[in-house]
Amino acid sequence: MRLLVTGLKGQVVSALMERAADDPALTVLTLGRPELDLAAPGDLSVAFRRLEPDAVVSAAAYTAVDAAETEQDLAFRINRDGAGAVAAAAAALGVPVVHLSTDYVFDGTKATPYVETDPVGPTSVYGRSKQMGEEAVAAAAPDHAILRTAWVYAAEGKNFLRTMLRLAATRPEIAVVADQQGTPTYAPDIADAVVGVTRNLLAEPKNPALRGVFHMSGAGETTWAGFAEAIFRESAARGGPSAAVRPITTADYPTPARRPANSRLDCSRLRGMHGITMPTWTDALARCMDRLQQQGTLTS
């Protein structure tokens, strides 16, 4: 299976490339700037056709949540127009597109985990740009699967886990928001799910149940403070940096963009339609910390 993945260095892109290195039946072809600029995508069909993919994974996005509040035009050009152009190019080739989206399409006021049929209501520019990106993908390419995920992290790149470990190296205590609920999702687990969904789409090209919107996040739930505490427990057990966590409220840590208080996603549809069960976030965290230790990048 030949996957054309948008982006060159993102956490999920890197995980997909690593997965392909261990799977002779999988080839990952990446396309990014300058050849692919989602801020000014134009017609991508020629570039896509040259690579002859079996499917397209739309992974690249504008993800600077707070900066989007003042860079609205750029966020919409990339997350709405760019995503739509990628989907249109996939449709022109006659191949499915798997598009990565986010929990930020919801307002976070629901008391229970969100299902795919819940009304969207983003409260930030980033969330609105991703919602409109979903709509653009669905309009441009009927053969699509939109995968909403949340709280993505990896052993590499810029993410919450690496920030916590960096801060713990110099601080005895770190204040972390404790009134936002969600589920950390490990990038390699996202990569596995993306490959599984794509293979299902290719195996059953006329099955509508495999298409549409699906939720795809780690199993279980926690808060940002709970995630930080777990990170430090796992780190300390491996001789890495650790710090005490001081729980605070969202009001104590104001940000330009409003975050959903509830980012929990119900992944039952992904399991029922695609047969994919996401690992628990605690098990995934342990695997990530093992990787950091093995790489020698987890230091006290």
UniProtKB/TrEMBL annotation:
Protein name (record): dTDP-4-dehydrorhamnose reductase
Species annotation: Phreatobacter cathodiphilus
Coiled-coil annotated spans: none
EC number(s) stated in the UniProt entry for this protein: 1.1.1.133
Domain of life: Bacteria
Keyword Transmembrane helix: no
Annotated signal peptide: none
Keyword field: NADP, Oxidoreductase
Cofactor(s) demanded: Mg(2+)
Catalytic activity: dTDP-beta-L-rhamnose + NADP(+) = dTDP-4-dehydro-beta-L-rhamnose + NADPH + H(+)
Main function: Catalyzes the reduction of dTDP-6-deoxy-L-lyxo-4-hexulose to yield dTDP-L-rhamnose.
